[in-house]
Input
Amino acid sequence: MKIRYYISGHGLGHASRSCQVINTLRRRHPEIAVEVVSDAHSWFFAGFLDPAVPVRRRRLDLGVLQRGSLVMEEEATLRAYRRFLPERERAVAEEAASLRREGVSLVVADIPPAAFAAAKRAGLPAVALGNFSWDWIYEDFALRHRGYGDVLVSVREDYAGADLLLRLPFHGEFPAFSRIEDLPLVARRGSLPPAEVRARLGIPVGRRVGLLSFGGFGLEDFDFSGLAKLQDWTFLSGADRPWTGPNLQLIPQGLFAYPDLVRASDVVVTKPGYGIVSEAIANGTAVLYTPRGDFREQEVLVAALKRYARCREIDNAALLSGRWGASLEALLAQPGPREPLALDGDLVAAERLAQLAGGVRA
Output
């Protein structure tokens, strides 16, 4: 049995939850071979994916074009997808031939549309997994930028080739999918005690910790001078960010699993994205979030934060100027969430995919 898992390269959320599902599947069903096709960051797979799973780089979707983490380039995205259509046709043909040639049993995708067209052409079952599909995102863009009906038609026709959607919480609408099964949350959880992580980082006992998390797009035009005034805080950030500050600590990639940093922090400072929202909820960490423009997924993710986590909004101007003190204090004074959320979606998804790879009907 062999599964080919196609993963969108947009941001880190798709890769994060896909790695969690694949790793759980491999632990429970080592007899099932899994291979990944994606243009997501190679360093992410190197750090979080079972090393026995091969990764082949290929772009099968465009996601959303962005300037940093906070600005969506809507019409540029639609134009780019239109230009991508000839490349998409070549990819579908080549992937379909490869699927047949290499004896793949099941196609899974989170959630590049062309993967389902390739599976259909190869005569293979295909399963989608995600909390939104790109036609739902692009439909919203197309309401504000007319004349891109061909893009929506292409994406929806591709998605119609899926046999089943495993739908995650915090989801949008999925008009192109005819069969849907709901999953619990898929999210990585920290395994190290927070005190151990803080001690290894040299953070004094009693000091508050904020984790800056802006995914694969980074944060532009940020002024850290305001954070220097928050002398009882240490802020953690990825070492690839060219930022400096007296209470800013840069963390090299690979030093800790990211969920351990989330768990060890009092607050995550971020924009709403599935990966960090789900991991903050799963690890019980408060979230100070800033809007990311008129992005359709944002509404459902913010609703999830308000229901399952302590959270507070900070506007873009206050975020970029480092004026966080009052917002951080108000956030930490808020009561915790009252409603629990099931966190075993990786297990449920892994067992369902194992059934389907073995020929069990959807």
DSSP finds 13 helices and 15 strands in the chain.
